[in-house]
Design goal:
A two-stranded antiparallel sheet has the order 1-2. The mean pLDDT is 88. The two termini are 39 Å apart. It is built from 5 helices and 2 strands, in the order H-E-H-E-H-H-H. Helix content is 71%, strand content 8%.
């Protein structure tokens, strides 16, 4: 399974490299449309930057991946909280079991106590 994943990553890397090489032209990114920049106080929010087109595409791919991961992490919070609570409960019950076994076996022979714990 690991090799299938590596093969997928290799193919993805090749495809992204080809797309990047095919889109080397520079584009201008604006934060606001031209009409909004004419409004008072909006010109402070307006700026432009020139970047290669492939950087824009890769940037949005990474942004989408990060947003998806954050969404999944938030969505799975209740499951992680439940698992943590169950883990705490198991630890508490294991401590109680050891304490109960120790009280039960305090008057027994050590060998018999070990055999009882094994079963």
């Amino acid at each position: 399974m690991r090799y299938v994943l590596y093969a997928f990553y290799a193919i993805l890397l090749i495809v992204l490299t080809v797309v990047c090489v095919a889109n080397l032209q520079w584009v201008t990114l604006n934060t606001l449309p031209e009409g909004l920049t004419r409004l008072p106080q909006m010109d402070r929010l307006a700026f432009s930057v020139e970047v290669p087109l492939f950087a824009v595409a890769l940037g949005f791919l990474v942004l989408g991946w990060v947003l998806g991961e954050v969404y999944e992490w938030l969505r799975e919070y209740k499951y992680r909280a439940e698992a943590s609570a169950k883990k705490t409960e198991v630890r508490k019950l294991e401590r109680q079991l050891k304490k109960t076994q120790a009280e039960r076996d305090k008057d027994k022979d050590e060998v018999l106590a070990i055999l009882d714990q094994a079963s």
